[in-house]
Amino acid sequence: MKAMTQDRYGEPDVLELRDIDLPVPGPKEVLVRVRAAGVDQGTWHQVSGLPLLGRLAFGLRRPRFPVPGMDVAGVVEKVGAEVTDFHPGDEVFGVGRGTFAEYATARTLVPKPPNVTFEQAAAVAVSGCTALTALRDLEAGQCVLVIGAGGGVGSYAVQLAVAMGAEVTGVCGPRKLELVRSLGARKVIDYRAEDVTGEYDLVLDIAGSRPFPVLRSLLTPRGSLVLIGSEEGGRWIGALDRPFGALLRSPFTSQRLRAPISLENKASLVRLAGLLADGTVTPAVDRTFALPDAAAAITYLRDGNVRGKVVVVP
After folding, report:
1. Which PANTHER family does the entry link to (predicted)?
2. pLDDT on residue 217
3. Does 298 reside within a domain?
4. Any idea what the CATH number is for the domain that residue 118 is in?
5. Residues 24, 112: one domain?
6. Domain shared by 21 and 68, yes or no
7. pLDDT grade, residue 59 (50/70/90)?
8. Three-point CA angle 188, 223, 41, nearest 5°
9. Which of the four pLDDT bands, split at 50, 70 and 90, describes residue 69?
10. Is residue 272 one of the residues assigned to a domain?
11. Same domain, residue pair 148 and 242
12. What's the whole-number average pLDDT of the chain?
């Protein structure tokens, strides 16, 4: 099969299209014929090997898994001996391993709603589950500020918060203003043209460039600050400096400072699939790239102009 592979860490151009053996699913895994694979910051971390602390999971000197990619949507080709809930021919989406390929193995999957395309479904799992985790304490009627509202996680966070009954303000760049409005945000702020002001029950910071005092000044006295990701950290620990900072500050304030770890799980995917099926949530897919252009897809993401998500199509 064709797959984008890497034998070293580096810029996206380390990826090469090669013919490799078909992966073999384990007893609890499914072999999926990939119809689309999502691209997110986690994919870039896999390819670049940054931050260096992440290599404990990815491989210290070279990638442990030569084919990157996690988000997947496709058709079940084969099931492992212990899999009873899927059969060959089923259309599915979720999280797999090595999804930048014609076939990939996966364990965390759910049926794809028929009203959702494979390209849309491939953009859901990682970013959608992250947004759900970030908003787990949200209550109806609260005021929410989403900083980075036009990106992958942000585009889901806006829609989910609106569906939960919150009043949402989104912060993004000028190219993403119309997208964020279309997702249901009551107010949209172009951070390049105006300051972010107001008082919110929950501030979700995905962009990661504002210092703690600024973020906390936007909260009510008992509001919650939720930190999701950041590409501002150094080579060694990257975005992990922000969770550590939140942990150190949290005991000394009445405000809640959280940096939750998102785990893509079956329950969250089932919930997201239901919201996709009834039209409450619609994946925002900016562009699709052919499999040989996966490096260009990652570069496009890293440039910061993606409106929602991008996907790779074999």
Report:
1. ALCOHOL DEHYDROGENASE RELATED (PTHR11695), RETICULON-4-INTERACTING PROTEIN 1, MITOCHONDRIAL (PTHR11695:SF294)
2. 95
3. yes
4. 3.90.180.10
5. yes
6. yes
7. confident
8. 55
9. very high
10. no
11. yes
12. 91
Q: What is the domain range of residue 169?
A: 131-258
Is 51 among the domain residues? yes
> Are 11 and 99 in the same domain?
yes
Q: How far apart are CA 189 and CA 256, in angstroms?
A: 24
Mean pLDDT, to the nearest integer, of 68-82? Answer: 97
pLDDT band at residue 73, thresholds of 50, 70 and 90? very high
> Which among 242, 258, 274 is the end of a domain?
258
Share of the chain above pLDDT 90, in %: 78
- CA torsion sign, 294 to 296 to 301 to 307? negative
Q: Rounded to two decimals, what is the model's pTM?
A: 0.93
Residue 299 counted as domain residue? yes
Q: Give yes or no: residues 86 and 198 share one domain.
A: no
pLDDT for residue 236: 47
| Domain shared by 244 and 296, yes or no | no
Residues 10-33, mean pLDDT to the nearest whole number: 97
Are residues 290 and 250 both part of a single domain? no
pLDDT tens track for 217-275: 999 999 999 998 755 555 644 555 566 555 656 555 667 888 777 778 999 999 999 99
